[in-house]
Specification:
The protein contains 15 helices and no strands. The protein is mainly α and 415 residues long. It has a single domain, classed as Amino acid/polyamine transporter I, CATH 1.20.1740. The longest helix has 38 residues. It is globular and about 65 Å long. It starts with 5 loop residues before the first helix and ends in a 9-residue tail after the last helix. This is Amino acid permease.
């Protein structure tokens, strides 16, 4: 049932992005790029723009649940679609876990963080089970809280008189590898703009609404990220930012505006919950599309008769995320997520590249640049994250091959 309009779609996209970008990714990116953090941010934005236009072009043609899993199957073939869908599921499951972990890090002491993160995942899975309109409504409230908190944090940091700590000015230049790695990590924060594409069956006028929502969300968040990154570099310095576990809270606490620290923590919690809520919905709907085609267990394709949501897929995703937050650290989750998501968007760009003139909205050069950008960024991610992501992707491809070999052939028509 199509219930979401353009404002709802934009809100879901914002909720998917700002929790990751503002509260989880700038510190590890600063570790990689140092004073060249803004170059990494700009490069991530270029690749994200290419991916956003490709996704918008594809979503206008295929307004159905599943995102690039569907686009890849239709334009490139079933194996490409599976690779995209599986990359999305594993990457965004890690993103969900990262958001839950960030929420707990800003709200409870260390020993309680993992169990509280798991409880948050299960609670929001229950909310998502009640229907997509409730998801969009809660996301709207959370986004409003986050934007107010970020405004307070930026003003408090800039006007509070904080100075960069001694030795935080720069150090040696990181080199191209560091900038590329920072861009790959920051891309983790940009990926939420296409979340609305996975909700294609629940958006009104999808051919018009989805492209507008994707491009608008990306533009708004790019401005927000630039403002926050500049503020953090100015107040903490590159080295101080790289060493921080809660950069915005530290930037505010260092000056005379320490009263704003609780506001920042509330904003971080709201941002993380908003992103988690939207991500859970998106991953479940890709799982729904894959289950319909037999690429995941077909039982996950069930849709609740009352709430019209893929309740079994949502329950399965929630359970996997809850396990992940109990076992894996935040920075490992970010790198693993970036691996899966960059591979996913590489397939999206390839699929858009094969579309004909009647379906084309953007130049082919953007799709070529998107493919190259995704491949380069994924290869520069931390080796442990890259190898883990590729191993899980390979395991999924092998499992599909084994299942397809054992499955009886479809009956042929004729006498």
């Amino acid at each position: 049932m199509r219930r979401l309009g353009l404002p709802d779609a934009i809100v879901i996209g914002l909720a998917s992005m700002i929790g990751a970008g503002v509260f989880a990714v700038f510190a590890p990116a600063a570790q990689a790029a140092g004073s060249w953090l803004l170059a990494g941010l700009a490069l991530a934005l270029v690749v994200a723009t290419c991916n956003a236009t490709s996704t918008a072009q594809l979503a206008a043609t295929y307004p159905t649940s599943g995102g690039t899993y569907v686009y890849g199957r239709t334009q490139l073939g079933p194996w490409w679609g599976f690779a995209a869908g599986w990359s999305f599921v594993i990457g965004k499951t890690a993103s969900c876990a990262a958001m839950a972990t960030t929420f707990a890090a800003y709200t409870v002491p260390g020993p309680w963080q993992r169990p509280v993160a798991a409880v948050a995942v299960l609670a929001l899975t229950a909310v998502s089970w009640r229907g997509i309109t409730r998801t969009a409504g809660l996301a709207r409230v959370l986004v409003a809280v986050v934007l107010v908190a970020l405004a307070v944090a930026v003003l408090g940091a800039l006007l509070g008189g904080a100075e960069p700590p001694a030795g935080a000015g720069g150090g040696a230049a990181p080199g191209p590898q560091g900038v590329l790695q920072a861009a790959g990590l920051i891309f983790f924060a940009f990926a939420g703009y296409a979340r609305v594409a996975t909700l294609g069956e629940e958006v009104r006028e999808p051919a018009r609404t989805i492209p507008r929502a994707i491009v608008t969300t990306l533009a708004l968040v790019a401005v927000l990220y630039a403002v926050v990154a500049l503020t953090l570099l100015h107040v903490l310095g590159p080295a101080g930012l790289a060493a921080s576990h809660a950069p915005l809270a530290d930037a505010v606490a260092g000056g005379s505006a320490s009263w704003a620290v609780p506001v920042v923590r509330v904003g971080a919690a709201a941002a993380s919950l908003g992103a988690l809520l939207a991500l859970l919905a998106g991953v479940a709907r890709t799982g729904l599309a894959m289950a319909r085609e037999g690429d995941l267990p077909r039982g996950l394709a069930a849709v609740h008769p009352r709430f019209h949501v893929p309740h079994r897929a949502e329950a399965a995703v929630g359970a996997c995320v809850a396990v992940a937050v109990l076992l894996v650290d935040l920075r490992e989750l970010i790198g693993f997520s970036s691996t899966g998501v960059l591979l996913y968007y590489a397939v999206a760009n390839l699929a858009a590249l094969t579309q004909g003139p009647g379906q084309r909205r953007y130049p082919r050069a953007l799709q070529v640049l998107g493919v190259v950008g995704c491949v380069v960024l994924v290869l520069t991610l931390p080796p442990a994250s890259l190898l883990a992501g590729l191993a899980v992707l390979a395991a999924g491809l092998l499992a599909r091959a084994l299942v397809r070999r054992r499955r009886p052939p479809a009956p042929t028509l004729g006498p």
